[in-house]
Amino acid sequence: MPKVLLIDDEPHSRRDLRNLLSAYPDVTITGEAATVDDARPLLRTADYTAVFLDVQLIGGTGFDLVPDLKPGTRTVFVSAHDHFALRAFEVNALDYLLKPVSAARIAGALQRLEAQPRGVTAVPAPPEAALTLDDRVFVRSGTTTRFVPVATICAVKSCENYTELLLLSGERVLVLRTLKSWEGVLPEPAFTRIHRQAIVNLARVTKIERAGEEELLFHLDAPHPALPASRRQIAEVRDRLKAAGLGGLLP
Questions:
Q1: Domains of the chain by range and CATH?
Q2: In the prediction, which pLDDT does 251 show?
Q3: Mean pLDDT on 97-117
Q4: Could you tell me the sign of the dihedral formed by the alpha carbons of 240, 244, 250, 169, in that order?
Q5: DSSP string covering the chain, please?
Q6: What is the rounded CA–CA span in Å between residue 13 and residue 207?
Q7: CA neighbor of 214 nearest in space, from 200, 232, 236
Q8: Max avg pLDDT among 42-56, 137-151, 164-178, 186-200
Q9: Are 19 and 127 in contact, with CB atoms under 8 Å apart?
Q10: Residue 123: its pLDDT value, please?
Q11: Side-chain half-sphere of 166: how many Cα atoms within 13 Å?
């Protein structure tokens, strides 16, 4: 008899899954979580044989939780977008369901769950692929999801557990993703950290001016305030500017 955990940060999505699974008396839901932090202790202590796991969660992704799954767990990823599917199957996912999930897809997932041996388990996800300036990146801000062209990101600023994207249009988009995570996937040398709390797209820098003896201000090709480069980053920033053919901007 399948014992299932539901891990999804959207209450209505968990409700929909509960309703769909209620049609199967042999399925027991043994726990639910909405965030990565809540899911980890649940995955260690709960009694379960399968997990319905949202890809994008508060505090991280479903892929971050794969190492916390008990051996033999069958994993069904759930997402509103199909572009995570390849990565899901790279970690031995049993199935990949697109929201809104239909009754037919739940039936198919449960059939696969029953057919797959318990010994086949998920494996840690490979690193997220690096982006290029021609790519679009998926971002979620609150309940809104969208694709943003990488080339239109002028800068990324840290806001505690969040980051703020400063876009070419003048828009500011707050997303639940760390600056370090962005630094790992944004293309170099176009994107470079100029401060411990800011990454700048050098292609969107129109002017650099001095602000005191050891500080530089970066003006962007967008209606956003200029961003300061910290003293400890200035030498690296100068090298990156020269590598990007933008040494002429240096004051």
A1: 3-115 (3.40.50.2300), 136-249 (2.40.50.1020)
A2: 63
A3: 85
A4: negative
A5: --EEEEE-S-HHHHHHHHHHHTT-TT-EEEEEESBHHHHHHHHHHS--SEEEEESEEBTEEGGGGGGGSPTT-EEEEEES-GGGHHHHHHTT-SEEEESSPPHHHHHHHHHHHHHS-TT----PPPPPPPP-TT-EEEEEETTEEEEEEGGGEEEEEEETTEEEEEETTS-EEEES--HHHHHHHS-TTTEEEEETTEEEEGGGEEEEEESSSS-EEEEESSSS--EEEPGGGHHHHHHHHHHTT-GGG--
A6: 46
A7: 232
A8: 42-56
A9: no
A10: 43
A11: 22
Output the pTM of the full model.
0.51
Question: Tokens 């709390």 sit at which residue?
Answer: 197
Tokens at residue 242, please?
């020269």
Residue 164, pLDDT > 80, answer: yes
